[in-house]
Amino acid sequence: MDVSLFHNPRAGDGDWPADRLVRLLEMSGFTPVHTSTRGKELERALENPHDLVVVAGGDGAVAEIVRALHGRGHTIAILPTGSSNNIARALGLIEEPRHIVAGLAKAKRTPLRIGVVEGPEWTRNFVEAVGMGPIAGAIVGDGGGKEHGSDLVGERRQELRRIVADAEPVEASLIIDGKRLDEKLLMIEVMNLPMIGPNLLLAPEADPGDAHLDVAWLPAAKRRSMLAWLRDPEARGSPMLRVKAERVELHPQGGTIHVDDKALEGGEATLMIRIEPKPVHVLIPRGDE
Fold it and tell me: In angstroms, what CA-CA distances link 2 with 64, 86, 97, 282?
């Protein structure tokens, strides 16, 4: 079976180069056509990929391919080779690529919903989250830099903690399903997944297959609690408040927002955020039955 393999060679520690993944797929009966997500040929390869698309990389590469293929009827297999792998984790994909590839023949198709943020002059889909505050600031500060390293998650948590310590309240208004949130906020994240950034579990109830957003926000009064939590996020729950929603209105008032891993100027107009009605479908190995 022919498959399109999109691979980010800079993801994670580099333990999964393209030739190794090609051999794995061939051993399981697939004929992969490889394209680097870092190459000039990516745009052309996305014009007419095979029905089954395999994405090997971290959250940036996976989200890029998912957004590009949304609404086109392709089935996607994710091989998580990045540092955080929040999208794969949200779908229960925690095995190494070789185990996932071995289970693709009997895998089930699972829906993955896609969010959309609409402004007056642009519209952009997202897989992870839209937000304002320290995470958007961390994306701006990173500038698309370091992607390798076994301790990249830890380093990014430390950097985020430094940003939270100095952060000013965001200049923004937030309306959740018609109800305005009136308090000073340090962070706003409108999420499609439970985790964001360096494996931060901000919305544990979030389901990437349902039709709801999960809105998480940090009141300015909870700064110290957030700093303490960022020292060891696995030890206890996040201090951020959260609620499920169908529709969110965010007025950035000129501040910086992030849409997945891209930082954008939010402008002055209200942004409308919701879940797209049609999901993409991801193959999830069934495991031992």
Answer: 21, 27, 18, 17
Helix (H, G, I), strand (E, B) or coil at 127: coil
Residue 29, classed as helix, strand or coil, is: coil
Q: What are the sequence ranges of the domains in the chain?
A: 2-113+279-285, 116-275
pLDDT at 289 over 70: no
Length of the chain counted residue by residue: 289
When pLDDT is cut at 50, 70 and 90, the band that residue 267 belongs to is: confident
Tell me the torsion sign for CA atoms 206, 208, 209, 211: positive
CA distance 53 to 49: 7
Would you state the CATH architecture of domain 116-275?
Answer: Sandwich (2.60)
pLDDT-based confidence at 199, cuts 50/70/90?
A: very high
Single pTM value for the model: 0.94
Q: Which of 134, 151, 157, 137 is nearest to 232 (CA)?
A: 157
Distances (CA, A) of 151 to 83, 164, 194: 8, 20, 21
CATH number of 2-113+279-285: 3.40.50.10330
Is residue 285's pLDDT more than 50?
A: yes
What is the rounded distance in angstroms from the CA atom of residue 222 to the CA atom of residue 81?
34
Phi, psi of 64 (to 5 degrees): -60, -45
